[in-house]
Amino acid sequence: MPNHSPSTAASARPIKVLHVCETAMGGVGTYQRNLVGMEGVEQRFLVPSCHREMFDGIGGVLSYLMTRRGAPGSLAMIRHLLKTVAEDRPDIVMAHSTLALLALAALRLRHPALPSIYCPHGWAAASYAPGSLGALTIRRLEGRLSGVADRVVNVSEHDLQLARSLGYRGTHIVIENAVPPPVPDASAARFVEAREALHLLFVGRFDRQKGLDILLEAFAMARESRPDLHLHLIGAPVRGGSAPNLAPGVTRIGWVRPDEIDSWYRSADALVVPSRWEGLPLVIPEALRNGTPVLAARRSGMERLISEGRSGFSFDLRAENLARLLSRLEKTQLNAMRPACAALYRSRFAIERLHEEMGALYRQLV
């Protein structure tokens, strides 16, 4: 699709990219933060005002008032996107997550020549039971509207294969998630006073998708024979949700600052990812960059993000299966995996690779 501005202007200045989303919490906001610093690219971010704190310390952040999600929030997003495009004249608009497709469709009607990218961050259809009314509805929405974008960026090979199997429209590519290197002063001494225990870490929302309920059941089963196991929960319930009852050996930490998370990963013996569905969860490369092995559910292709027995283990997502895995863990074996974990991060999930591939895509479109 032709560029809406002269090619000479595009080559004489940085490429202006405007990102838009209906939610910036969790991985969607972190992903956008990770795009900051790309050479030759000027990034701006249009986000709900209630999520602006995800971008603290970053310039170029615009916000719109969203009183509640659903139709009112989507209309506010669309209105502010069209206004911002008219004022800022970006070279590319990149929309993030499902409801941002509505804004992308409105943008295409108003500015048909403006290049656009869509990133689902995991297809919403994966969260519904096959054949259910919800699955059919969301498949129609994201399957048809994804075709309005010039490119659809899937964050994992699994997402690409899912889109193809469902017949989703659009030109689909894969640019795997990546994360920056760990902070230089990350400590491995969070649990120095309990160094004999085997410390497991969970990072994420306390909701059905993330599978904390399965992990807590499995942990209680495993701890009957392994009282040395300790589970640390970083995260919180979703808005309106309730905190789970915690068994002995489980500690709730809450959310931690971005500059603190590496110390938690680095101090843990392993990260557990029991999600029912995902795109490419950023917690996996975040753990690997700190040399921390990952225990990943065999869902959404997560088992293909690690090397079995070298940088972690995978398991079928049932409490009894996870309990068996937890009960067999040994600190010495997990510690021996740490160099391979760090090497996997550097070879596959380093931020430089993401910036290079995304920059190449931007240049193709302008």
TrEMBL record:
Keywords from the named record: Transferase
Domain Glycosyltransferase subfamily 4-like N-terminal span(s) in chain numbering: 56-174
Protein name: Glycosyltransferase
UniProt cross-references to PANTHER family, sorted A to Z: SULFOQUINOVOSYL TRANSFERASE SQD2
Sample GO molecular function, one term: glycosyltransferase activity
A Pfam family per the record: Glyco_trans_4_4
SUPFAM superfamilies attached to this UniProt entry: UDP-Glycosyltransferase/glycogen phosphorylase
CDD domains assigned: GT4_PimA-like
